Automatic annotation (TrEMBL):
Keyword Membrane: yes
Molecular function terms, GO-annotated: monosaccharide transmembrane transporter activity; symporter activity
Positions of transmembrane segments: 48-67, 79-102, 114-136, 142-166, 227-251, 263-285, 292-314, 326-352, 364-385, 391-414
Protein's name in the database: Sugar transport protein
Keyword tRNA processing in record: no
Chief localization: membrane
Length: 448
C-alpha cells in the first residue's frame, strides 16, 4: 500500500494528460524545444502533489502510536486500511504498526529477515506502481485516474488480511490479556516451552505499566540512545536520495533524454532491481549483521552518486540530450544505487528502530521515528525538482556528501543488534556500547 503510493506519484506527474489538466504551466514548459533540461518540472504545486502524503502521515503517526498501545497492532492495521480506502490520511498508521508487529512476533534468530519482509512488500508496491504507470501511460485521457484509483487494491488486501493475522503476545499481555497472550506465544513458537520468553515479556510489560507518560519518558537521558538512533536512521534514509530517485525516476529519465514510454520502462527496471535486492537483505541480515550491510551500501551508494553526478555534469547541458550510451550508463548506475539501498538503508531504517526501544517507550519512540521519516520525506519530495533546477548535476554530489556522514555515524555510533532478544537490548547493547553506556550508567545511579 505504501510502496504503491511512492511509486505511482512520480509516474502520474510525468503523464501529459495529468499535467495538462492540473499543471498546464508545467505541461507547456515540458514541450518547449529549448526548455532547460533540469528545470522543466520545477513547480512547487506539482511537488506538493507528491509530498502532501507525508504531511498527513506525519500527523497520523502520533495517532497510530496511541492506537497501537491502547488497542493493539492488529486493530491499528485494520483502521489504517479502512481509512486508506477513503483517502491516505491514516496511511502512516500501518507503517507504525507493521514493523513493531513483525519485530515482536518473530523469533530472535530470524527477526531481521521477517521484519524486512515489510520493506520487501514496499518495494513490490513500488514495482507494481511502475508497471501500472507504464501500462496506463497511453490510455488517454484517463490513464492517470486509473493509476491513482488502483491504490484501493492493496488497501483492501491489508484490510481483509488484518482479520486473519494474530495479535502479538506482547500487545496482548501489555493490555492485560494474560491467558490469551501466553496461548498466542505458544502458538506462534510452535511449542509449549516458552517460559523464559514469557517471563521476559511479563517483565517488560510490568516495567511499561510504570511509565504513565511514554512520550515524556522518551525525553529522559536513558532514552536518548534509542531515540537518537531511531531518528537518525530515518533522516539518513531520506538523505541517501533514494525517494527523490524513486519518486521521480520517470521524470529523471525524461530529463536525461528518454521519451515518456522509455522513461517509464526504465523506472520499471529500477523497480525490479529494488525488489530483488531487498531479498538479498532478507537472506543476509541475520547472518552478516546490520552494520556490515549499512557500511557496504555507503561505499556503493557514494561511488554511484558521484559517478551519476560526474556523467551529468560533463554531458548534460541545459538544452541538449545525452548520448544514448551515456544515458544507458546513468540507468545502470541508478540501478546499482537502488540495489545497495534496497539491501541496507531501506529495510534497516525501519528494522533497527523497531527492535531497539524497550516496551515502555516502543510505540511512542517508533512514532517519533516515523514522523521524522515523514518530515524529511516531505522536505526531499517538495524540494527535489527545485534543487535539481538550481544545483543541476550537483544535486547528486549533495546526496553523496550525506552518505559520507552516514557511514561515519554507523562506524562510531550504531551498535550491532543481530541475535539480541528485543527486550534485552538495554543490558546487552546499550550498556556495553563505548559511547551510549554513559547514558545507561547515569540511569543506574539515579535508581540507587
Amino acid at each position: 500500500m505504501f510502496g504503491y503510493d511512492i511509486g505511482i506519484s512520480g509516474g502520474v506527474t510525468s503523464m501529459d494528460d495529468f499535467l495538462e489538466e492540473f499543471f498546464p504551466g508545467v505541461y507547456a514548459r515540458k514541450h518547449k524545444a529549448k526548455e532547460d533540461n533540469y528545470c522543466k518540472y520545477d513547480n512547487q504545486g506539482l511537488q506538493l502533489f507528491t509530498s502532501s502524503l507525508y504531511l498527513a502521515a506525519l500527523v497520523s503517526s502520533f495517532v497510530a502510536s496511541k492506537l497501537c498501545t491502547k488497542h493493539g497492532r492488529r486493530l491499528t492495521m485494520q483502521a489504517a486500511s479502512v481509512f486508506f480506502l477513503a483517502g491516505v490520511v491514516l496511511n502512516a498508521a500501518a507503517r507504525n504498526a507493521v514493523p513493531l508487529f513483525l519485530s515482536e512476533i518473530a523469533p530472535v534468530r530470524i527477526r531481521g529477515a521477517l521484519n524486512i519482509l515489510f520493506q520487501l512488500d514496499v518495494t513490490i508496491g513500488i514495482f507494481v506502481a511502475n508497471i501500472v504507470n507504464y501500462l496506463v501511460s497511453n490510455i488517454h485521457p484517463w490513464g492517470w485516474r486509473l493509476a491513482l484509483g488502483l491504490a484501493g487494491v492493496p488497501a483492501t488486501m491489508l484490510c481483509l488480511g488484518s482479520f486473519v493475522i494474530a495479535e502479538t503476545p506482547t500487545s496482548l499481555i501489555e493490555r492485560e490479556q494474560l491467558i490469551e497472550g501466553l496461548a498466542m506465544l505458544k502458538k506462534i513458537r510452535g511449542t509449549g516451552n516458552v517460559d523464559a520468553e514469557h517471563q521476559e515479556i511479563l517483565h517488560a510489560c510490568e516495567m511499561a505499566r510504570q511509565v504513565k507518560q511514554p512520550f515524556r519518558n522518551l525525553m529522559k537521558r536513558s532514552s536518548r540512545p534509542q531515540l537518537v538512533i531511531a531518528i537518525a536512521m530515518q533522516v539518513f534514509q531520506q538523505f541517501t536520495g533514494i525517494n527523490a530517485i524513486m519518486f521521480y525516476a520517470p521524470v529523471l529519465f525524461q530529463t536525461i533524454g528518454f521519451k515518456n514510454d522509455a522513461s517509464l520502462l526504465s523506472a520499471v527496471i529500477t523497480g525490479i532491481v529494488n525488489v530483488l535486492s531487498t531479498v538479498v537483505s532478507v537472506v543476509l541480515v541475520d547472518k552478516v549483521g546490520r552494520r556490515f550491510l549499512l557500511l557496504e551500501a555507503c561505499g556503493q551508494m557514494l561511488i554511484t552518486q558521484v559517478a551519476i553526478g560526474g556523467l551529468l555534469f560533463v554531458n548534460l547541458r541545459a538544452t541538449n540530450e545525452l548520448q544514448h550510451g551515456v544515458a544507458i550508463w546513468v540507468v545502470v548506475l541508478v540501478c546499482l544505487f537502488v540495489s545497495s539501498f534496497a539491501w541496507s538503508w531501506g529495510p534497516l531504517g525501519w528494522l533497527i528502530p523497531s527492535e531497539t526501544f524497550p516496551l515502555a517507550t516502543r510505540t511512542a519512540g517508533y512514532a517519533f521515528a516515523v514522523s521524522s521519516n515523514m518530515v524529511f520525506t516531505f522536505v526531499i519530495a517538495q524540494a527535489f525538482l527545485s534543487m535539481m533546477c538550481h544545483l543541476r548535476a550537483g544535486i547528486f554530489f549533495f546526496f553523496a556528501a550525506w552518505i559520507v556522514v552516514m557511514g561515519l555515524f554507523v562506524i562510531f555510533l550504531l551498535p550491532e543488534t543481530k541475535n539480541v532478544p528485543i527486550d534485552e537490548m538495554t543490558e546487552k547493547v546499550w550498556k556495553k556500547h563505548w559511547f551510549w553506556k554513559r547514558f545507561m550508567d547515569e540511569e543506574e545511579e539515579e535508581r540507587r
